[in-house]
Specification:
The complex is a heterodimer of chains A (about 250) and B (about 190).
Chain A lengths: L4 H11 L5 H13 L1 H19 L5 H10 L4 H38 L1 H25 L7 E7 L12 E3 L7 E7 L9 E8 L4 E4 L1 E4 L3 E7 L6 E10 L5 E3 L4 E5 L1
Parallel strand pairs in A: 1-3, 2-10
Antiparallel strand pairs in A: 3-7, 4-5, 4-8, 6-7, 8-9, 8-10
Helix pairs in contact in A: 1-3, 2-3, 3-5
Chain B lengths: L8 H11 L3 H21 L5 H14 L1 H7 L4 H18 L1 H21 L4 H13 L2 H10 L4 H15 L3 H28 L1
Classes of the chains: A alpha+beta (about 250), B mainly alpha (about 190).
């Protein structure tokens, strides 16, 4: 029974606080009396943390996670561990790729027919690679480091401090959740502009949005050290775009 | 019940006897129940989950004479009933407690999210990975290296290579992960003590 997708889904929703009272009580009783169910909970807990750390939770789950799941210091520590493990796993994957290269070289010299075959493959690969490169420039990143920013509506000295991101990022992209100010009237459309410390500006595409936050993605290759300001614009129901007062501050080190 | 009641050695011994006639097994069962109660209270968003779990156990122990004599069934179910009462009383104080908890949660969440810095954990993890066997290190790093569909495919391949089911691989990776987590916590404590 344990480990079935249904049980896994139920325990996941339990952990995110998404169950009704009756189902929650059923799950809790099971957790107290059934060792396998409890083990499933422990595994699911780590998996949710991994999903959060890699930006795989949808905005609603993410909000539940932050409000409900991340309440204890133990789970916050688990989150930092998950980020460290993820970084190591990605480094390990890159090293495995590098180790394969000497093997290929020795095969090349010991089997001459391979060079002819490889030349043919290389020409094909060049063509395919060119096409892939052109397409990959627009391909979405696979891994994300995540960050939630709250708006700074006063001076830099008084408001929320700039969040700090350190390079290397350890992921393909930085996903930033911009928490909407509570007092904000709902807008039908939003636009986000990134401003660098030397005054350059560029628009950021909105990846996700819900009533509480807006998510934008910055590829790791575009993240340079410096200070950034993210400005948010909202278009109301009457179709007029207005700047949301305040800024989201980010420092990349 | 008298909320000032404190757990006595006699009540604790009787509680253990009720859980299991064998004292070692009773001790293990006690720890299991306490750990699970903590998870239940944590699951309900209680910041003081450990205190509430202990309060639950204390209340059961305070009535252990009656309970051992009259109650039939899995002791875990009895603990759960008491845990519901403890949580009910806790939530009645929510005007005070939840405001405090909410502020605390927001504060820690904000701090955690704003700082993606896991450098101390990363350094400790590097040392801890070095204590694993090559086989286990390879297993855990491969298990956590991919994303989305690539991850699912990678795990199927890994399970096939090991000749086990994907869910068995999931549990095996979890066990190694727990071992690593403990090692990292020890390492961080040692580093903090320096």
């Amino acid at each position: 029974m344990i480990g079935t997708p249904e049980i896994q889904d139920q325990i996941r929703r339990y952990l995110l606080g998404e169950l009704d009272d009756r189902t929650r009580a059923e799950v809790e009783q099971k957790l107290l009396s059934d060792g396998e169910a409890f083990r499933e909970l422990l595994v699911a807990e780590d998996e949710i943390i991994d999903d959060y750390a890699s930006g795989r939770l949808d905005p609603e789950e993410r909000a539940d996670f932050e409000a409900h799941f991340l309440a204890t210091p133990e789970r916050q520590q688990k989150l930092r561990f998950a980020r460290a493990l993820h970084r190591h796993a990605m480094t390990f994957a890159n090293e495995r790729e590098t180790v394969k290269q000497p093997v290929i070289r020795s095969l090349w010299f010991s089997r001459p027919w391979l060079s002819w075959a490889a030349t043919t493959v290389a020409v094909l690969a060049l063509i395919v690679g060119t096409v892939w490169f052109l397409r990959s420039r627009t391909a979405p990143p696979k891994t994300f480091a995540t960050l939630t920013l709250i708006i700074n509506q006063s001076t830099r000295a008084e408001g929320a401090p700039a969040a700090v991101v350190r390079l290397p990022l350890g992921a393909d992209a930085l996903k930033i959740f911009l928490r909407l100010p509570g007092s904000l009237p709902p807008a039908s459309r939003y636009r986000v502009v990134l401003e660098t410390d030397n005054g350059e500006t560029r628009p950021l595409e909105i990846a996700d949005q819900d009533g509480k936050s807006i998510a934008v993605v910055i590829p790791a290759t575009q993240l340079k050290r410096g200070q950034y300001v993210l400005k948010l614009f909202g278009t109301g129901v009457e179709g007029v775009e207005q700047r949301i007062p305040g800024s989201y501050l980010l420092t990349v080190e | 019940m008298n909320k000032e009641w404190a757990l006595t050695q006699d009540a604790f011994d009787r509680l253990l006897d009720w859980l299991d006639a064998d004292r070692n097994r009773a001790g293990i069962r006690y720890e299991e129940i306490r750990r699970r109660l903590i998870k239940v209270f944590t699951g309900r968003g209680c910041m003081a989950a450990e205190d509430l779990a202990d309060e639950t156990i204390n209340r059961v122990a305070a009535r252990i004479g009656d309970v051992a004599r009259d109650y039939e069934g899995d002791p875990a179910s009895y603990f759960y009933g008491v845990c519901q009462n403890v949580h009910f009383e806790y939530s009645r104080k929510k005007d005070v407690l939840e405001t405090r908890d909410f502020a605390a949660i927001n504060s820690v969440t904000l701090r955690t999210n704003l700082s993606d810095d896991c450098e101390p954990e990363y350094q400790c993890l590097e040392a801890c990975l070095g204590h694993l066997s090559n086989k286990n290190r390879d297993l855990v790093l491969r298990y956590y290296q991919e994303e989305k569909q690539a991850k699912i495919d990678q795990r199927k391949l890994q399970a096939t290579e090991l000749g086990i089911a994907v869910n068995a691989l999931r549990i095996r990776a979890y066990r190694i992960r727990i071992q690593l987590e403990r090692c990292v916590l020890d390492c961080l404590e040692k580093d903090g003590a320096k």
